[in-house]
Amino acid sequence: MHLPAQAAAVHLPGARPRRGPYEARRHRDRLGTRLEPALSQRQTTRMAKRGVGLRGRTLVALVLAAFVLVALAIVWRRTIGIGQAETLAKLDVRRTELEGERARLEGEIRDASSRQSLGVAAESRLGMHIPTDKQVVILPRAGRRESP
């Protein structure tokens, strides 16, 4: 039999050395999804019979988010409270000032309405004076009858 010097392009299925199970798996993984059908054609082997519960990381994240929200609400409430306390302090100072001004004005009204100040004001502004005894005339009341 005469064979040519060049190797023929013939595929011999059993000609390679055998691979172990691990090496065969790596070879499949290298091929990737070429061996798997499209997602719409695949059959689902197992489905959850009921809803999947919260897992560890999700639960921790939810608890942490709730804690942050509560802390933010507390800080927000305290900030508003501090602002309102400042406003109340300003209003209290203003109320104290107004009470003092009211007391001062009431004193001035009391002084201005006294007989002494009214007499001085009437004499100076209106030209009135206190009458002497000769200028005072006492008139009897007209509506009274004298008894017999």
In a nutshell, what does this entry contain?
With 148 residues, this protein is mainly alpha-helical.
Give the SSE layout:
Blueprint: H1 21-31, H2 56-112, H3 115-126
Describe the protein:
The protein is built from three helices and no strands. It is mainly α. The model has no long low-confidence stretch (mean pLDDT 80). The chain has helices at 21-31, 56-112, 115-126.
- Estimate the mean pLDDT confidence: 80
How many strands, which pairing sense, and closed or not: the largest β-sheet? none
Shape annotation: rod-shaped
Order of helices and strands: HHH
Structural class: mainly alpha
Report the total helices. 3
Helix content: 40-55%
Distance between the termini: 186 Å
Strand content: under 5%
| Beta strand count | 0
Low-confidence stretches: none
Radius of gyration based on Cα positions: 56 Å
Features:
single chain; 148 residues; mainly alpha; 3 helices; 54% helix
